[in-house]
Amino acid sequence: MIATSDFRKGSTKILWNNEPWIVMDYQLVKPGKGGTYLRTKLKNLITGRVLEETFRSAEKFDEPDLEYKTMQYLYKDEHYNFMDQESYDQVAFNEDQVEIVKKYLKDGIIYNILQFKGKPILVEPPTFMELEVVETVPGVKGDTAQGGSKPAKLETGLVVQVPLFINEGHKVKIDTRENKYIEKVG
After folding, report:
1. pTM of this prediction?
2. Span 164-183, pLDDT tens digits
3. Which of 41, 45, 66, 107 would disulfide-bridge 24, Cβ 3.0–4.6 Å?
């Protein structure tokens, strides 16, 4: 059982109305009269629907039957196709299921697949990825690591801010949780 006191922003997953939800945000409210309660912002892990809900502070929730599997991204046709790393079965995802990871999809990379009751529902990218810069304004002699930043389009279509010395063809390490440049690779 998960108590409301165990809620953590962006990581606590609960079973509510027979569906898995993730707690995106919450706020503890202590009114002058009556009991304490939590205002929460929840996201449905199956549909992606976001809603705000209020719970009593003593309320408890079941843990959803969630399981992570590692799968390799293969290709895109009308679906996004992944291969299970243990059974070698192929699984096809629709556009909605890969929405949050779409800008990080790269052939051959291993992704975490979240399953609810054995059915794949969500694709999560690795925490860090190395991607090639395919489009950016050229660096100028004298640009340093301490200077400003510029936008760069990466091989997957993602656009991030990079230091001025990064040029097309460079590989960069990206933090997928915050869509941020970490360092130049190689």
Report:
1. 0.71
2. 888 899 999 999 888 899 99
3. 41
